[in-house]
Design goal:
mainly beta; nine-stranded mixed β-sheet; two-stranded antiparallel sheet; 1 helix; 11 strands; 2% helix; globular; disordered N terminus
Length: 203
């Protein structure tokens, strides 16, 4: 069912998907160590201050089938951090030459003929903890039992009506928010933030 955490009753404004040119530091993958991510169309902050991780962490193990209540898995990215996804993510999904993950941390997916699929979506998404997002509403989410999937593409709308991100939140999938580098830009933080530590990283 549709994810409810970021519902705020906004509506999509026709034509607003044409966002302003994104900040090159996000597009090139050379994002600053500290940043606030904002909508490129209206400038609204979509996150608080975030510290960059060197890579997207592995998704934590989560036995979702044993959970007493259905809900999202533990977040892949710890709160207060972000990372750049270097691999393709999201649609289009095309037939793969060999079976394997359809996209990072997503597992396998097949078409109606049983052929394995692989993502040829964009690279360079800014991956954050969904709980760190601000003012986003779920729209056009792919069908799932209790959350959103990335299979149908961007499903998160800024308050101005611009599609800016893809939420992955179904119970059996990694809990991640992928901000599109073509629809967001970096803002300088107002003050330093202490180092963030992943709750599922052994010390």
């Amino acid at each position: 069912m549709e994810d409810q955490r970021h519902q705020d009753g906004t509506s999509v404004r026709p034509g607003s998907e044409q966002a302003a040119a994104p900040d090159s530091v996000l597009v090139d993958g050379a994002a600053p160590e500290m940043t606030v991510v904002a909508c490129a169309a209206c400038g609204a902050a979509l996150t608080g201050r975030l510290k960059r991780l060197p890579a997207v962490p592995e998704a934590p193990y989560h036995a979702w089938w044993e959970a007493e209540e259905m809900g999202p898995s533990p977040a892949t990215v710890p709160s207060g951090c972000y990372a750049i996804e270097t691999e393709p993510y999201g649609p289009p999904l095309v037939v793969a030459e060999a079976p394997g993950p359809v996209m990072p941390r997503r597992g396998t997916l097949h078409d109606i003929d049983g052929q394995p699929l692989v993502s040829q979506g964009p690279r360079g998404n800014i991956v954050v903890n969904p709980d760190d997002s601000r003012g986003l509403t779920t729209r056009h989410a792919s069908a799932a039992c209790c959350g959103a999937t990335p299979d149908g593409g961007m499903n998160q709308v800024c308050a101005c009506g611009t599609l800016v991100a893809t939420l992955c939140s179904d119970c059996c999938l990694p809990y991640e928010l992928h901000l599109s580098p073509d629809h967001v830009r970096a803002l300088p933080p107002t003050r330093p933030r202490p180092d963030c530590v992943s709750p599922h990283t052994a010390t």
